[in-house]
Amino acid sequence: MRPPLPRLHAITDEPIARRTDIETIARALADGGGSDLAIHARGRELTGLEHYTLARRLSTLPSQLFVNDRLDVALAVPSAGVQLGRGSLPVSAARGLNPSWWIGRSVHNLVEAEAARTEGADYLVVGPVFATASHPAAQPLGLAKLRQIVRAAGDIPIIAIGGITADRVMDVRSSGAYGLAAIRALWHDAEPALAARRMQEWMS
Questions:
Q1: I need a surface site. Which of 27, 142, 153, 184 has the fewest CB within 10 A?
Q2: Rg (CA), the chain
Q3: Yes or no: is domain 8-203 CATH 3.20.20.70?
Q4: How far apart are CA 167 and CA 165, in angstroms?
């Protein structure tokens, strides 16, 4: 039986993935977030070997490891789940590889959310909710559209992403999101353990 879906998701990008101190920061995040933290090995510009190495380094932590996009890496490293993007394989393909995975879809609007629900995704990562440096050209959804997607998703958990900072956690939670995902607000915080603990407590 798979463990519950974490409410807090710490996602890497290419610069974070290549930091020499990534394991130290990841360990601090795990200390703060506990079992309710998922750490995502993500990096669209990483080579296959780099992505595998990143996932291996993160797999030694007590938090749940999720691998984004690369199902081959998720198969090679003990993983609790996978997150699929626009160019990834279908949910059914991932389910066939490992039925015990949490399988999520990244969506950016109501149409994509409804399609992912029909496809059978276990959870949806929805964003960007707010303006974010990770995707400066993307139009933020805002809280009203987030609420609309939450309603349309029904019982599928929604993980909000994009510009999520500590002072926005309560607004995101009040909008009906099950959890949240962040890059800079967690990996770049001067006290990552405290940042993870605070966000996790406010989402619970």
A1: 142
A2: 15
A3: yes
A4: 5
